[in-house]
């Protein structure tokens, strides 16, 4: 019996995308089906290269062919991706803007933002990072770029800032334009103009994700970013302590205000537990356990992961080479998993927005 394309499509119509709750064929995720005797090959186009369900979906496809088409089939699946988008982000070529925020300072926003950007890039996504913290920029130090000055180029008569490329991502920091030894004497409107320039006047090219490291709390910069650009979603960073949770709630409240209305992608708990280098199996919950989970529950948003408190995370930030770039270890894994969960939430949020739009349009 010869295998047909229709049989393959019918079989794969039984495989559900667990997040989007529809089958892969309906979602148009199956492409390039080729059949040659018992050899069946096709591509599965995921919504992000950082898909945490990649292996599971691949397995389900394989089983569906073996079960519904032929036990003799020799299956070759090409797992690829096309990052989704839902609306014009206001920055041409940029598909998704992810803001990293917190109510309180010093909880690890910049550390999470840098490792999130690099974690997404590690999976193959095209990523940019904007450090919008005018009063305490972190990107120059975390990426070993102190004193770096971006080049300007002329594109169609306009001056464009060229983001600096390092470790495979594109970077701009307000710190590339200020003197680290001088306080920044800017007032509200100047701050707002400077931040908008990082988005509008830079040559970002095509990006799947543009991550924004915001300053602590809520202020002019948050309002500028969220009102000038349709941010896909915000990642809220907290530490396990109750104080930080109270502040995180404040930070989130701002995104939920009707005038701002930025979806919350979820909560990341940083400094969740301490693990000594010599006892990597031991976890000490020195600030209490489960605070981040609790906040996520109260807000009815996903929990995106626990990041351990490890001296190496701080050392690598200071040394200009964020942790996630290192070889596989527990810290790297924690950041990679977090990045995958963020990408997953972006894909879900995009799918929801698109189906809502279809309902409105029909
Ligand atoms: N999981 C961690 N383990 C160890 N050190 C950490 C961890 N996360 C952050 N740090 C360190 O804590 C300090 C504060 O982190 P970071 O700068 O990322 O916080 P932030 O929220 O961006 O601060 P700010 O509010 O000033 O912008 C840094 O020295 C950083 O290296
Ligand atoms: Mg910071």
Describe this structure in words.
A hairpin with a 2-residue loop joins strand 10 (164-166) and strand 11. The protein is of the alpha/beta class. It contains 10 helices and 15 strands. The protein folds into 2 domains: 5-81, Fe-S cluster assembly (FSCA) (GMP Synthetase, Chain A, domain 3); 97-343, P-loop containing nucleotide triphosphate hydrolases (Rossmann fold, 3-Layer(aba) Sandwich). 35% of the residues lie in helices and 24% in strands. Bound molecules: adenosine-5'-triphosphate (ATP) and magnesium ion. Magnesium ion binds next to helix 3.
- Which sequence of SSEs, written as H and E, runs from N to C? HEEEEHEEHEHEEEEHEHEHEHEHH
User: In this structure, how is the largest beta sheet organized?
Assistant: 8 strands, mixed
CATH superfamily of the largest domain: P-loop containing nucleotide triphosphate hydrolases
> Uncertain segments of ≥5 residues (pLDDT<50)?
none
Identify the strand order in the major beta sheet.
Answer: 10-11-7-12-6-13-14-15
CATH topology of the largest domain: Rossmann fold
Report the principal-axis shape.
Answer: globular
End-to-end separation: 43 Å
Helix count, DSSP H or I runs of 4 or more residues = 10
Helical fraction equals: 25-40%
Helix-strand makeup class: alpha/beta
Report the β-strand fraction as a percent range: 15-25%
CATH architecture classification name of the largest domain: 3-Layer(aba) Sandwich
Count structural domains.
Answer: 2
Bound molecules: adenosine-5'-triphosphate, magnesium ion
Radius of gyration, whole Å: 22 Å
What's the level 1 CATH class of the largest domain? Alpha Beta
